[in-house]
């Protein structure tokens, strides 16, 4: 069970009672932002709920992944680290993709996971906000807004040629890492299929039978979950290498969801490549790639080459900022020593807050 960083836990049972408080001095929110270096240890059980803040650099449409509908938001933190946030459909539907690029993004009570790279995932307790008006957050927001785009400040640091990448993999210098390279697609292996579709009722994939997608085990009335998966060869001026384009990145490249490419545009045969995809051959792209532990190359993002700009100065040489990336709020004092936590219920018609006072700092977990 995810929890917050305290040595004990507090569970609310069915018989728990809550008393409304009208004191206007009680804070309605509390942030305890983690730094990027603190994320990896939080994958160890029991996972700690994590607060994080950054500026939105990229956002994907809502699409299927692992039998769920999700949206991914890429943010840049104060130290120019890139982190991807996966939002469940309930949280994702609150986002208007056309106007959030460059806004300050705050997520509360997320968990840290890893899929090719570190990422955050929303939980049932998570809340998402943009450009919060909390006074204590304004210095952090000001610094984030002044920073250059993510492509300008981070990607050149790991930019590599394909020849250099192949050499590193061959010599086992790197087995797992993040890089960027400027390359173009030269070959698409359409005989391997460019998409697959999962049954909405079971983990198995559906197949095409008489122009209909069917599952061998289930009778399905609703649409399958369509996902791009394209094996290709990319090449730069030094060499070429085989990579895999998965759903999110290919959706960005062709600007069409896999579902619409298959159903709305009538491309139901996974072994026949649509013109919308094959036309992308030969176009240079700035590829954000991950080297998996087995040596497979996965493309996480594809941008126009002009997205990469000259590197900015090392943030370590800049004027020091706050060492701890968190915001605290005044507390209501009590006679006994202890810790106090303030919780604001979501989507509640009652305008009250609950003050939980503990005799000693404890490990508190919430499920609302």
Radius of gyration (CA) equals 23 Å
The count of strands amounts to 17
- Order of strands, main sheet, comes to 1-3-4-6-5
What about the largest sheet? 5 strands, mixed, barrel
Please trace the helix and strand order, writing H or E for each element: EEEEHEEEHHHEEEEEEHHHEEEE
Helical segment tally? 7
Q: Label the structural class.
A: mainly beta
User: What is the distance, rounded to the nearest whole angstrom, between the alpha carbons of the first and last residues?
Assistant: 13 Å
Could you report the average pLDDT, rounded to the nearest whole number? 77
Shape designation: globular
Strand content: 25-35%
Share of helical residues = 10-25%
Low-confidence stretches: 153-157, 307-368
Which properties best describe this structure?
mainly beta; 5-stranded mixed β-barrel; disordered C terminus
What does this protein structure show overall?
It comes from Ambrosia artemisiifolia. This is Replication factor A C-terminal domain-containing protein. Residues 303-322 are annotated as: Disordered. There is one protein chain. The chain is mainly beta and 368 residues long. It has seven helices and 17 strands. The strands form four sheets. A five-stranded mixed beta barrel has the order 1-3-4-6-5. The protein has a five-stranded mixed barrel with strand order 8-12-13-15-14. The longest helix is centred in the middle third of the chain and has 9 residues, at 138-146.
């Amino acid at each position: 069970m995810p929890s917050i960083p305290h040595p004990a836990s507090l569970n609310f049972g069915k018989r728990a009672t809550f008393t409304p408080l009208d004191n206007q001095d009680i804070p309605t929110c509390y942030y305890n932002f983690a730094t990027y270096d603190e994320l990896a240890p939080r994958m160890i059980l029991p996972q700690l709920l994590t607060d994080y803040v950054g500026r939105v650099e990229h956002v994907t449409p809502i699409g299927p992944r692992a039998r769920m509908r999700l949206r991914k938001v890429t943010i840049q933190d104060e130290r120019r680290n890139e982190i991807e946030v996966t939002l469940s459909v309930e949280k994702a539907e609150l986002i208007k993709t056309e106007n959030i690029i460059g806004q300050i993004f705050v997520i509360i009570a997320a968990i840290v996971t890893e899929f090719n790279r570190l990422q955050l995932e929303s939980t049932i307790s998570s809340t998402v906000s943009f450009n919060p008006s909390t006074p204590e957050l304004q210095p952090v927001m000001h610094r984030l807004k002044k920073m250059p785009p993510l492509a300008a400040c981070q990607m050149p640091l790991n930019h590599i040629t394909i020849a250099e990448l192949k050499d590193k993999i061959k010599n086992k210098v790197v087995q797992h890492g993040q890089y960027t390279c400027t390359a173009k697609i030269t070959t698409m292996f359409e005989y391997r299929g460019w998409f697959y579709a999962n049954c909405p009722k079971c983990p198995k994939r559906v197949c095409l039978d008489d122009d209909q997608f069917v599952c061998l085990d289930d009778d399905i009335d609703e649409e399958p979950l369509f996902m791009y998966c394209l094996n290709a060869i990319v090449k730069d001026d030094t060499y070429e290498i085989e990579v895999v384009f998965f759903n999110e990145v290919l959706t960005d490249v062709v600007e069409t969801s896999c579902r619409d490419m298959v159903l709305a545009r009538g491309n139901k045969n996974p072994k026949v490549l649509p013109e919308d995809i094959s036309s992308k051959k030969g176009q240079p792209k700035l590829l954000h790639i991950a080297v998996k532990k087995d040596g497979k190359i996965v493309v996480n993002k594809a941008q126009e080459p002009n997205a990469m700009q000259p590197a900015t100065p090392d943030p370590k040489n800049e004027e020091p900022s706050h060492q701890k990336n968190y915001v605290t709020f005044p507390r209501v004092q009590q006679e006994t020593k202890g810790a106090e936590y303030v919780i604001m219920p979501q989507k509640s018609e009652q305008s009250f807050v609950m003050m939980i006072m503990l005799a000693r700092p404890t490990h508190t977990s919430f499920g609302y």
